[in-house]
Design the sequence.
């Protein structure tokens, strides 16, 4: 199975800096700087981006959004939004994500100043490095969000098998349908572990308890509630 990558772009009037993610979506690497003949030139740069999308198997584009340091949007933002529309139109239905590049630009500038390069060398790679920091910022954000989801704490329930074996499950979702409360549970600590759908019932003493949904018709209905059909 081919692994798709993410393309990072730093758009400007004269150049478009390009970076691409590694196959695992962990790190960003600089690719090149696309030169533009004029601020209103699009055909050549979009053509080269098309070639890079095919070459690297790109599934998504992250485009730096140049807000002012106070968070406001100026003329550069307007131009970037216009370029985003051209990207979406040219590469439909590929997703194009705007990424606030304020911190990325600062980080790129600091990196350039610390590198042992003369002014001409820094100027020749700054746009590519900006694209790297833009894409890396996005990749780090996605990874951090995924880690937070994995660390999310759930209420738990302990179920006992017929042989007396107890298994702890995380309650990851709950829904009510036609007056019946259903809960979706997954083996504790295992994101891809075995799952069950339980429903809320009353025992002989009128206390609330849960039993597994086994009736095929009811189970199919419950699966649809939790998008597990």
Sequence:
């Amino acid at each position: 199975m081919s692994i798709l990558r993410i393309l990072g772009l730093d758009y400007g009037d004269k150049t478009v800096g390009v970076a691409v993610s590694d196959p695992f979506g962990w790190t960003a690497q600089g690719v090149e700087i696309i030169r533009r003949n004029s601020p209103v030139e699009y055909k050549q740069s979009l053509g080269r981006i098309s070639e890079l999308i095919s070459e690297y198997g790109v599934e998504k584009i992250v485009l730096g959004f140049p807000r002012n340091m106070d968070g406001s949007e100026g003329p550069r933002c307007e131009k970037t939004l216009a370029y985003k529309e051209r990207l979406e139109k040219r590469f439909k239905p590929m997703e194009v994500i705007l990424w606030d590049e304020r911190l990325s630009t600062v980080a790129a500038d600091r990196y350039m100043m610390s590198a042992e390069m003369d002014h001409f060398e820094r100027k020749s790679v700054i746009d590519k490095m900006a694209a790297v920091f833009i894409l890396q910022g996005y990749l780090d954000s996605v990874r951090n969000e995924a880690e937070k989801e994995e660390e999310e704490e759930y209420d738990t329930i302990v179920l006992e098998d017929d042989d007396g074996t107890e298994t702890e499950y995380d309650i990851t979702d709950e829904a009510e349908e036609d007056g019946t409360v259903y809960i979706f549970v997954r083996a504790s600590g295992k994101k891809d572990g075995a799952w069950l759908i339980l429903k809320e019932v009353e025992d002989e003493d009128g206390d609330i308890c849960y039993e597994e949904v086994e009736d095929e018709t009811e189970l199919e209905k419950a699966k649809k509630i939790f998008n597990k059909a």
